[in-house]
Design a protein that fits this description.
heterodimer; A: 405 residues; alpha/beta; six-stranded mixed β-sheet; four-stranded antiparallel β-sheet; 16 helices; 42% helix; B: 276 residues; nine-stranded parallel β-sheet; 46% helix
């Protein structure tokens, strides 16, 4: 599907939360007052220099920003084409980009006088980031996590508990990330007065997709400046992995109106998009309505939501942020996919050549860097978002490599 | 709407009788198509004045465990939108007066196609719709087209719907207003009867529509308490729990399934009738 190109790709969403036909506010009436309150509070905070200053200060001294833009020299030599840079968001406090958004939302929750924070998590990275910020500010923190993920991400469950969060294993539905999000929404419906729902990705009802994007846009803004300093110009291409799509949206957004920059999102193809076991919502799904927004979803012909599959728990979600759906339909961003096996190969290569143990999520993007970079000339500047580190994944990887730890 | 829908006719009748309506919720196709049809056909005789029929969905975000499980039972038994509408048609062959309201979430309707859904629902004999995840902000999606074609669109008002927001919620609501008695999910907390009465009066200051109250109503006593001030009492989780409790080890209906539910419906109907 292709629609005519807008004058700017950076004006969305409209006042009803729509990016083209995507986004919106598809929530139960009980939540509408909360959604509207959040929208107003966020709009006010954005205009307040004190909020901006506080967030910037925490990003610098607590999160550790700016993250480096690193020239992956040995990988570049190995691939023999484009000059490959990594945006090192895995070096953030808590080991992933998730904390950028969490700091923004938790500071907002404090402004709003909310004392109880809830979150959903899949791999546990967003849960750990939320638990971390809640510990820092002495806020009650409840993290909903599919029972299946609680089992396969035990180290992160322990981290969250150390940080003082309550981790609630979700056994409803099919016990994965989508069910954790359902359960978090149920909690919010039941505790509207004092509770702030800290969503971990660029999805959910308006204003979440735009708000989370704004908080993550620090990734792209830094990249732009850093590349200017290193190479004196814009990069030629950007590439990032997509589950819900927050790290990708954060990298892409500041470049959307720079037409010379080619932008590529990589979904998780699991065991292959032609199988039932993948998490590629755009490549293998179609538009529908879930979790407060219209977007590409994995579902059957009756509109029942399908389970996603990916080796990476962080990409294991049957939807994608609505702005990505719109960027796909307008053609501004190309969405492709990488399989579990391709991601594992990329994982091994990155460890060996760059001395960086990447999370399995960015390995999906890296797998496509390995494919695309050799087809580009040496002056082509390619930036991949290294959005998380792989400590959490070593057990999964060991299992796939047949190694017993 | 010249002739009015079955919902409007039913509330007018009950007003004349001086009592509230018992609105019963079951999920279409739970625990299987045949048992669900048998149950549906027997509900009016047991005292149900209006039937809410759940359109099963994998991700019912505003529902508690009982209705989630009910939805999954129906889906596992092969229920889908085509079969749900067929269930209504088959019910209508024998009953042309009991109103049927389809209740659920937007995605299965969106995927079925909004126009096609409205056409087929009308043809099947559906009177109204409750779509949990379509607040007034999304009225253009389904609410307006459905109203234009003569279906009632019943909106949920909640304890968080304050006087400022209430007019917005009521604007395109028709048939009745469904007051959610608790801030929470279906089948969770028990409603506080006196606060519910206050809320019903508050809503009635803004509308002439009947107000039905649901979420958390399980017993005849609660039903009686709510019926004293409201125009209708909605019971759902308690009924689908009665279905669940009657199933055999394989999750199939047993001889007691329909009977158990009907017994509870009769008790609730008594409660509602003794409310005023």
């Amino acid at each position: 599907m292709s629609t005519s190109a807008p004058n700017s790709y950076r004006t969305g969403p409209d006042e009803t939360g729509l990016f083209g036909i995507y986004g919106g506010r598809f929530v139960a009436e009980t939540l509408m007052p909360n959604i509207l309150e959040l929208e107003a509070a966020y709009a006010a905070a954005r205009k307040d220099p004190a909020y901006e200053a506080e967030l910037t200060d925490f990003l610098e001294h607590y999160v550790g920003r700016p993250s480096p833009l690193y020239f992956a020299e040995r990988l570049t030599e190995h691939l023999g084409g484009a000059k490959v840079y990594f945006k090192r968001d895995e070096l953030n406090h808590t080991g992933a980009h998730k904390i950028n958004n969490v700091m923004g939302q938790i500071l907002l929750a404090r402004r709003m006088g909310k004392t109880r924070i809830i979150a959903e998590t899949g791999a546990g990275q967003h849960g750990v980031a939320t638990a971390t910020a809640c510990a820092r500010f002495g806020l009650e923190c409840i993290v909903y996590m599919g029972a299946t993920d609680v089992d396969r991400q035990a180290p992160n469950v322990f981290r969250m508990k150390l940080l003082g969060a309550e981790v609630v294993p979700v056994t409803s539905g099919r016990s994965t990330l989508k069910d954790a999000m359902n359960e978090a929404l149920r909690d919010w419906v039941s505790n509207v007065e004092d509770t702030f729902y800290c969503i971990g990705t660029v999805a959910g009802p308006h204003p979440y997709p735009a708000m989370v994007r704004d908080f993550q846009a620090v990734i792209g803004n830094e990249t732009k400046q850093q590349m200017q300093k290193r190479e004196g110009r814009l990069p030629d291409s950007l590439i990032a992995a997509i589950g819900g799509g927050s790290n990708a949206m954060g990298l892409f957004y500041p470049f959307l109106d720079d037409p010379s920059v080619e932008i590529i999102g990589v979904e998780a193809a699991g065991r292959g998009v032609d199988t039932d076991e993948h998490a590629a919502s755009i490549t293998g799904g179609r538009p529908g309505v879930l979790h407060g927004n219209r977007t590409y979803l994995l579902m059957d012909d009756d509109g029942q939501i399908n389970e996603a599959h990916s080796i990476s728990a962080g990409l294991d979600y049957p939807g994608i942020g609505p702005e990505h759906s719109w960027l796909n339909d307008t053609g501004r961003v190309s969405y492709i996919s990488a399989t579990d096996d391709e991601a594992l190969e990329a994982f091994k290569l990155c460890c060996k050549l760059e001395g960086i143990i990447p999370a399995l999520e960015p390995c999906h993007a890296l797998a496509k860097v390995m494919e695309i970079a050799p087809t580009k000339p040496a002056e082509h500047l390619m930036v991949m978002n290294m959005c998380g580190r792989g400590d959490k994944d070593i057990f999964t990887v060991a299992g796939h490599l047949g190694v017993k730890l | 709407m010249s002739a009015g829908t079955r919902i409007e006719a039913r509330f007018a009748e009950l007003k004349a009788e001086g009592r509230a309506a018992l609105v019963t919720f079951i999920t279409a196709g739970d625990p299987g198509y045949d048992a669900s049809l048998e149950l549906l056909r027997a509900l009016p005789g047991a005292g149900a004045d209006i039937i809410e029929l759940g359109m099963p969905f994998t991700d019912p975000m505003a529902d508690g465990p009982a209705i989630q499980a009910s939805s999954l039972r129906a889906l596992n038994a092969g229920q889908n939108m085509v079969k749900t509408l067929k269930l209504v048609s088959e019910f209508r062959e024998q009953d042309d007066t009991t109103p049927i309201v389809l209740m659920g979430y937007y995605n299965p309707i969106y995927i079925y196609g909004v126009e096609r859904f409205i056409t087929d629902a009308k043809a099947a004999g559906v009177d109204g719709l409750i779509v949990v995840d379509l607040p007034p902000e999304e009225d253009h999606e389904l609410c307006i087209p459905a109203l234009e074609r003569g279906l009632n669109f019943i909106r949920l008002a909640t304890p968080t719907t304050d006087d400022k927001r209430l007019p917005k919620v009521l604007t395109n609501t028709s048939g009745f207003v469904y007051y959610v008695s608790v801030t929470g999910i279906t089948g969770s907390k028990a409603p506080d009867i006196s606060r519910v009465a206050e809320a019903v009066s508050r809503i009635k200051r803004h509308t002439d529509l009947p107000v039905a109250v649901g979420f958390g109503v399980r017993t005849a006593e609660q039903a009686a308490g709510i019926a004293s001030g409201a125009d209708g009492v909605v019971v759902g989780s308690a009924l689908v729990s009665a279905i669940k409790d009657s199933l055999d080890d394989t999750g199939a209906a047993t001889e007691t399934t329909v009977g158990n539910v009907l017994k509870l419906v009769s008790e609730l109907a008594h409660g509602v009738r003794s409310g005023r």
